[in-house]
TrEMBL record:
<dbReference type="InterPro" id="IPR036162">
    <property type="entry name" value="Resolvase-like_N_sf"/>
</dbReference>
<dbReference type="GO" id="GO:0000150">
    <property type="term" value="F:DNA strand exchange activity"/>
</dbReference>
<feature type="domain" description="Resolvase/invertase-type recombinase catalytic">
    <location>
        <begin position="15"/>
        <end position="147"/>
    </location>
</feature>
<protein>
    <submittedName>
        <fullName>Resolvase</fullName>
    </submittedName>
</protein>
<feature type="active site" description="O-(5'-phospho-DNA)-serine intermediate">
    <location>
        <position position="23"/>
    </location>
</feature>
<dbReference type="Pfam" id="PF00239">
    <property type="entry name" value="Resolvase"/>
</dbReference>
<keyword id="KW-0238">DNA-binding</keyword>
<dbReference type="InterPro" id="IPR006119">
    <property type="entry name" value="Resolv_N"/>
</dbReference>
<keyword id="KW-0233">DNA recombination</keyword>
<dbReference type="GO" id="GO:0003677">
    <property type="term" value="F:DNA binding"/>
</dbReference>
<comment type="similarity">
    <text>Belongs to the site-specific recombinase resolvase family.</text>
</comment>
<dbReference type="Pfam" id="PF02796">
    <property type="entry name" value="HTH_7"/>
</dbReference>
<dbReference type="InterPro" id="IPR006120">
    <property type="entry name" value="Resolvase_HTH_dom"/>
</dbReference>
<dbReference type="InterPro" id="IPR006118">
    <property type="entry name" value="Recombinase_CS"/>
</dbReference>
<dbReference type="GO" id="GO:0015074">
    <property type="term" value="P:DNA integration"/>
</dbReference>
<dbReference type="InterPro" id="IPR009057">
    <property type="entry name" value="Homeodomain-like_sf"/>
</dbReference>
<keyword id="KW-0229">DNA integration</keyword>
Length: 196
């Protein structure tokens, strides 16, 4: 085998990536980085954003990772704050054949038991999302039976008449909203449905 081919094989070798995230400026990543280095991560990606925002560093890492690579985190909540997000990430990792390790929870998807545990967590997460959706629909249905349709409460007849009078005087929608202490969208909606 030629030297250039051997170099290509080395580049294709699976890598172990660590991912550390802090959600506030006051938090430190030192303990996460130390644990990831001790585990043997070859590259560690640091994210200093909240889990609710887009995680650019994690997205970029996913673009670099190849089948056979391993993603390591110190705890599951460093990877994901929501079960829905965790489910999406687990599906993505499985499709790309990327192994996943969470040090605290002792999850390692390179073993059959680790895969089972991670799938179990993802299934529980999916069930939780379904239950929330079902409860929301039941709540909306119950509210509808009680006469509530959702959205903002209707404005009073007095305010409705006042909007009509102020429009007829040529006042702007912005001025009407300020004077009557209603949102400008309320004024727009009123004019859309009553003034033609």
């Amino acid at each position: 085998m030629e030297c250039s081919q051997m170099g290509d094989l080395k580049e294709m070798k699976a890598k172990i990536y660590g991912y550390a995230r802090v959600s506030t400026q006051e938090q430190s990543m030192h303990s996460q980085v130390d644990a990831l280095e001790s585990f043997g991560c070859q590259q560690i990606v640091l994210e200093k954003e909240s889990g609710r925002k887009r995680r650019k560093e994690l997205e970029n890492l996913f673009l670099r990772m190849r089948a056979g690579d391993t993603l390591v985190v110190t705890k599951l909540d460093r990877l994901s704050r929501t079960t829905k997000d965790l489910l999406e990430i687990s599906e993505f990792l499985q499709k790309k054949n990327i192994h996943f390790i969470s040090l605290k929870e002792k999850i390692d998807t390179s073993s059959p038991m680790g895969k089972f545990y991670f799938i179990l967590i993802a299934a529980i997460a999916e069930m939780e999302v379904s239950m929330i959706r079902e409860r929301t629909l039941l709540g909306l249905e119950a509210a509808k039976k009680r006469g509530r349709c959702g959205g903002r409460p209707k404005i009073s007849a007095e305010k409705s008449d006042a909007i009509k009078q102020l429009i007829s005087r040529g006042m702007s929608k912005k001025e009407i909203a300020a004077r009557l202490k209603v949102s400008i969208s309320t004024v727009y909606n009123y004019t859309k449905h009553t003034c033609t």
